[in-house]
Amino acid sequence: MYKRIKGTEDIFGDDIKYWYYIENVVKETVRLYGYSEIRTPIFEATELFIRSVGEETDIVQKEMYTFEDKGQRSITLRPEGTAPTIRAFIENSMMATGLPKRLFYIGPMFRYERPQKGRQRQFHQFGVELIGSPSPLADAEGIIVADRVLKNLGLLNYTIKINSIGCDKCRANYKNALKEYYSDKLDYVCDDCKRRYNTNVLRLLDCKVDVEYVKDAPKITDYLCDDCKHHYEETKRLLDNLKIKYVEDPLLVRGLDYYNGVVFEIHHGDLGAQSAVGGGGRYDKLIKELGGSQTPSLGFAMGIERLIIALKNEKIPVEDIKNNEIFVAHLGEQARIEALKIAEDLRDNGISVVFSTMERGLSAQLKHAARLKCKLCVIVGENELERNIVILRNMETGEQIEIERDYVVGTAKEWIEE
Ligand code: ATP
Ligand code: MG
Fold first, then answer.
1. CATH 3.40.50.800 spans which residues of the chain?
2. Which atom number of ligand 1 is nearest to the Cα of residue 118?
3. Suppose 284 and one of 156, 172, 251, 296 were both cysteines; which one would form an S-S bond, judging by CB atoms 3.0 to 4.6 Å apart?
4. First CA to last CA distance, the chain
5. Are 107 and 125 in contact (CB under 8 A)?
6. 129-139 pLDDT tens trace
7. How would you label 224-240 residue by residue, b for 16+ Cβ within 10 Å and e otherwise?
8. 364 CA to middle of ligand 1, Å?
């Protein structure tokens, strides 16, 4: 027997309604803000992610699914959605249609990580990108959209953390301060951090191992230049004005290199070690880095599997998919021909009908209908048909009535709408 690959999941059955629910809420929410969907390929040139996410990040160092294809190209399954979206934005000359451009995506991402609850190797994200605005209005919009998605999902137990990681100017001074802070701790930190100290000192702050040193580290907010400080203050003021709740976290740096300025993360109280449901921020230099022109932008992404865990933990009711409303059973050669016609008539009326396609006796058919949780069974029998009659059976109460053939659809519709 073949088994699914470690860190992947089969999604089916009762879980599907959560996927539909989230996809629908996401699409409807971002529509309110003018975002349109983009579907990029699942794989890209490896170089795209190294260039954007950054050589010294966990994603590039440890987590990418990279392979050589038969044409000896280095290919990587996308670990995140921003780099492909920006690649597509540049390649398809989307700036020609006017800026800012508002795009969203939903789909699978791939990271080679240690599988745990809320952490898989294939997982799903939706994300939005607001491309082309340097204004704090754009930063505020990103956070407002994220907040409204969570609210529209019905979630309550989440926290939005925000910070500003400044521009190159402010970060230069800050990096020196960090280096000084860590200089006498280098013997005690993990090997990754020893390397990061020289290559990308900011990454020490999102080390998952050496967390105890992080809390007393210098704070970037004490090093922001006037422009960055003002931008950050203005973003917060816009959020305050809408009474959007957030917590400032001066040690939040995010795990990808392309960010600058305002960054944010959303954490959910019930998710334990995998508490982040989403994150994002400004990436003003990324588009130029990938070959486009200087285009200040920002975006965020949320993990759908973690949103589902959050929905379940908060016991948010999610409507069942209207499936298997009516079962059509039949007995006899002539009956099944007429039964098939009735099934199609019901479907013409938007009702979900399961037709009995096995050559089974009536009790076996009814048993199957019960198993599928059909509300109603239409039973078409040879004897009844001769009298121009079919039987309607309420599967919940067992109540059964005879009804004229021509009134089946109307009556069945009334019964299931009750
Ligand atoms: P974490 O700190 O938990 O590793 P991250 O900072 O790597 O998260 P991002 O790159 O910001 O995550 O991705 C945005 C969201 O995607 C995360 O907040 C999370 O909900 C989800 N996510 C990221 N990696 C995984 C994964 N391996 N499995 C499931 N969801 C994930
Ligand atoms: Mg991660």
1. 326-417
2. 29
3. 296
4. 45
5. yes
6. 999 999 999 99
7. beeebeebbebbbebbe
8. 47
Q: Which residues contact 324 (CB under 8 A, 6 or more apart)?
A: 352, 354, 372, 373, 374
Distance (Å) from CA 378 to ligand 2 centroid: 52
List the residue whose alpha carbon is closest to atom 17 of ligand 1: 278
Ligand 1 neighbours by CB, cut-off 6 Å: 80, 111, 113, 118-120, 123, 125, 255, 274, 276-279, 301-303, 305-306
pTM value?
0.94
* Cα–Cα distance, 4 to 249 (Å, whole number): 39
For ligand 2, the distance from its centroid to the CA atom of residue 54, given in whole angstroms, is 14
| For residue 220, pLDDT beyond 90 | yes
Nearest ligand, CA of residue 120? 1
CATH of domain 326-417: 3.40.50.800
Q: In degrees rounded to 5, what are phi and psi of residue 110?
A: -135, 125
Mean pLDDT of the chain: 95
Closest ligand 1 atom to Cα of 111: 27
- Mean of the pLDDT values across residues 256-265? 95
Dist. CA 147–CA 139, nearest whole Å: 13
What residue spans in the chain does CATH classification 3.30.930.10 cover? Answer: 13-167+225-313
Cα 406 from Cα 341, distance rounded (Å):
12
The highest-level CATH class for domain 13-167+225-313 is alpha beta
